[in-house]
């Protein structure tokens, strides 16, 4: 009986080591992969807007934001921050196109909060890119209105090529479908 318990213990320990090792070698939450050019915009019509956005974000401002965020979140990897900032820039483009865009990423929102901490630089960025101050409205609703998320997904996927990191930062896309009443479908 003692031999059976010993064998069982060794096998169980080996099983735990394998499970822990495989879990540690899984893909990270955000992959360290190259960024699509021009924010991955899917139409050349918005290239001037993308270029204006990049010109509106001075390098020193970007570095200061990154330093503050990484100091506050020491577990974030550099590339995870860079990908989240990349997705925040996509969000900013959506704000330039639409009247209002709900924020569906807590990580992107954290970076936006840090951008706001540099009040003069943020004011200048907003005026250079939008022509006016882009106000931050916190998303008080922890569960978004389904139609808002469906519309966000539709616009996002129309504008940008989405990859692994996009869905990791924003959450899975197209879990909620747009209702027919919002679409120009004959017979709807």
Number of strands: 0
List the domain count as a whole number: 1
First-last Cα distance: 71 Å
Give the biggest beta sheet: none
State the low-pLDDT regions, or none: 5-27
Helix content range = 55-70%
Return the average pLDDT rounded to an integer.
84
Question: What structural class is derived from the secondary structure elements?
Answer: mainly alpha
Question: Which percent range describes the beta-strand content?
Answer: under 5%
- The geometry reads as globular
Number of helices: 8
> What is the string of helix and strand elements?
HHHHHHHH
Gyration radius, rounded: 22 Å
Question: Could you give a short description of this structure?
Answer:
The protein is an all-alpha fold and 188 residues long. 60% of the residues lie in helices and 0% in strands. Helix 3 (59-72) crosses helix 5 (106-117) and helix 4 packs across helix 5 (106-117).
Describe the model.
The chain is mainly α. It has one domain (33-182). It is 60% helix and 0% strand. It contains 8 helices and no strands. The protein has helices at residues 2-25, 47-56, 59-72, 78-97, 106-117, 119-130, 146-159, 164-170. Helix 2 (47-56) runs antiparallel to helix 6, helix 3 crosses helix 5 and helix 4 packs across helix 5 (106-117). The longest helix is centred in the first third of the chain and has 24 residues, at 2-25. It is globular and about 50 Å long.
